[in-house]
Amino acid sequence: MKNSNLKHEVLIGNESQHYFEYFVEEISNKLYINEIYFGNLSTGMDALLSLLTKYQEDNIVCLSYNTDYQSVNIFIDGVSRETAEVIDSASGEIDNPQANDLFMLLNVTESVAFENGRLTLVFDIGAMSKQVYEKRRQSLFSYFNGEKTGKLKKSNDHFYL
């Protein structure tokens, strides 16, 4: 994973949305993230900010990230246990006021984890779906290892061994 020196300390409150948006835009610009993955990052961080505003207003959190260029891990240090428990207990109850934010956060991320005051959000940013990527990776691995793989097969306008 490539670590980044991009870090933002943000006071959760009225002005924090600007800092969260700037953070997402910086990541997207540095990693050349396309608009679909940018939308996931933006939506996820907006949903998280809504939860942080509800449970941690006037507290400071630190935003940072690292990447392997297939996914980006966003780290939020300073998240309270209460906020983490709300995210962890996502039951999807319609009556829950945070249900929409939780639904959005959990559906645009690959995973969400909390440990020692640090919330980690993992977003997929690969240029192709994981299934296609794994299929191509396996085909190339077999080819370069000299395995007899047979004829090329066509799937979704792509050829595989």
What does this structure look like?
This protein is of the alpha+beta class. The protein has two domains: 2-124, 2-Layer Sandwich (Heat Shock Protein 90); 130-160. The chain is 44% helix and 24% strand. It has helices spanning 16-31, 35-56, 81-88, 99-108, 130-144, and strands at 2-3, 8-11, 60-67, 71-77, 111-115, 118-124, 153-155, 158-160. The strands form two sheets. Strands 1, 2, 3, 4, 5 and 6 form a six-stranded antiparallel sheet that branches. Strands 7-8 form a two-stranded antiparallel sheet. A hairpin with a 2-residue loop joins strand 7 (153-155) and strand 8. Helix 1 runs antiparallel to helix 2 and helix 2 (35-56) packs antiparallel against helix 4. The longest helix has 22 residues, at 35-56. The protein is elongated and about 60 Å long.
Query: Tally the helices: what do you get?
Result: 5
- The top-level CATH class of the largest domain is Alpha Beta
C-alpha geometry: elongated
DSSP E strands, number: 8
Order of helices and strands: EEHHEEHHEEHEE
CATH architecture group name of the largest domain: 2-Layer Sandwich
- Ends apart, CA distance between termini: 30 Å
- The CATH homologous superfamily of the largest domain corresponds to Histidine kinase-like ATPase, C-terminal domain
Sheet having the most strands: 6 strands, antiparallel
- What structural category characterises the helix and strand content? alpha+beta
Quaternary assembly: single chain
Q: Kindly provide the radius of gyration, computed on alpha-carbon positions and rounded to a whole number of angstroms.
A: 19 Å
Helix content: 40-55%
Strand fraction band?
A: 15-25%
* Mean pLDDT level: 83
* Poorly predicted runs of 5 or more residues: 157-161
Domain count = 2
Q: Looking at CATH, which topology of the largest domain would you report?
A: Heat Shock Protein 90
